[in-house]
Amino acid sequence: xxxxxxxxxxxxxxxxxxxxxxxxxxxxxxxxxxxxxxxxxxxxxxxxxxxxxxxxxxxxxxxxxxxxxxxxxxxxxxx
Length: 79
Hints:
Layout: E1 8-9, E2 20-21, H1 28-36, H2 41-47, H3 53-68, H4 73-78
Antiparallel strand pairs: 1-2
Helix pairs in contact: 1-3
């Protein structure tokens, strides 16, 4: 599996420092909520045309890493 975590950014000036996709005002949480609600990747990409399929993969990888505690707090901030 290719690592897309470099697409996740944390900037205190964007979305109150929540993890976002490529510094845009689309949070990882937003993507995860769409997926949890049963939305398809294709429909998410239609709703957010600035996103790429790899951005969705990045959100999933980030959430998985957080759940597995593979990222320390400083690594989370460094993304």
